[in-house]
Amino acid sequence: MTSAQDTEDFFVTAPDGAGLAVRDHGGDGPPLLLLHGAGRTLLDWEAVAPLLTGRHRVLAMDVRAHGKSGGGEAGWTFAKTVADVAAVVAACGIPDAVPVGHSLGGMIAACCLEELPETPGAVNLDGHGMGRPEQYVGLDREYVVQRLAQAREFADAAMGRPLPGGTLDAVLAQHAAMAAALGISARRWEAGVRRGAARNADGELYLRPERVAGLGMQQAMAEIDLFGLYRRLRRPLLIARALRPNPSTPGMPWVDELMAAYVRGLHADLDELARTQPWVEVAGVDATHAMLMERPAEVAALVTDFAARVHAGGPGRRAGRR
After folding, report:
1. How many CB atoms lie within 10 A of CB 5?
2. Which helix (H) or strand (E) holds 101?
């Protein structure tokens, strides 16, 4: 563990030498490690973390190639992020921490549950990726494949590129509009954007992850078989799904159609998983994908309830939580 670079973060060295930024929120009790989503930072947990410290020791980290963590110049894989988590929990003396992840972080948490033997349980908060074409209920498979490729192409084109106009203004305006649509404060979203901004060798402003890492991350998310992973698990996993749709995407009505079809298929698959896999619990959160900022208390309550059962030695499962 290295010395603090500022008053709130400290750094742990990953197996490949990357520096991993970690924030200790304090607290006492069974440990939790909080993992954020793609393109975001550990600041996404600022509303939830204080609600967890009454019962847990709580730490959050910037996933590699995000925020203040290194690793942006190399390829990005889930195996590397799991090794990063292992390095952080070892350095902090909390090998039995429950990883709690949102979006991409939730997918990482599930991978940790399979790969790290001392991980007693994990929480995946709405981390589903884009799924499989057959999950898009009511839509032609080839149409879905075409649209998913279009969305991937759009995301890949912008990954790690200099921001238009050389400022954060346009990005912050988009986040402010989204916050207004959700009826929440834009302050934490803005803080996360600013933490994730960096300058390249030419001094141009861009949003992390860097292009090489970002393209690898997109590929990893497209290739992972989450439901196959879930069926292999023999330790408790809580999957929380958003119960409300995201705000519409201006000028792209096909995105809303695509996501509505995906949610129908995803929820059917999650219900079947919960019925057939004794180690998996599925719960709903009355929020959109932005649940950490919309419903921090509801998220914290789900996490503390699940973690208490896991650390008490139970299966983590409670009937009726769908």
Report:
1. 12
2. strand 98-102
The span from the CA of 113 to the CA of 321, in Å, is: 21
For residue 290, report the phi and psi dihedrals to the nearest 5 degrees.
Answer: -85, 40
Domain residue ranges in the chain:
9-139+210-311
Asked if 188 contacts 43 with a C-beta cutoff of 8 angstroms, the reply is yes
Q: Give the ranges where the chain is alpha helix by DSSP (H).
A: 49-52, 78-91, 104-115, 141-158, 169-182, 187-195, 211-223, 226-232, 253-276, 291-294, 296-311
Pairing of strands 57-61, 19-26: antiparallel
Phi/psi for 131 (5° steps) reads 70, -165
CATH number of 9-139+210-311: 3.40.50.1820
103 Rama class: left (phi>0) / alpha (psi -120 to 50) / beta:
left
pLDDT string in tens for the chain (322-residue length): 333 334 489 999 999 999 999 999 999 999 999 999 999 999 999 999 999 999 999 999 999 999 999 999 999 999 999 999 999 999 999 999 999 999 999 999 999 999 999 999 999 999 999 999 999 999 999 999 999 999 999 999 999 999 999 999 999 999 999 999 998 988 888 999 999 999 999 999 999 999 999 999 999 999 999 999 999 999 999 999 999 999 887 777 889 999 999 999 999 999 999 999 999 999 999 999 999 999 999 999 999 999 999 988 765 544 334 3
Q: 């834009």: which residue's tokens?
A: 186
Measure the CA dihedral 166/168/173/174, to 10°: 90
* CB-CB neighbours of 158 under 10 Å: 13
**SS3 of residue 185 by DSSP:** coil
Residue 244: alpha-carbon gap to chain centroid: 18
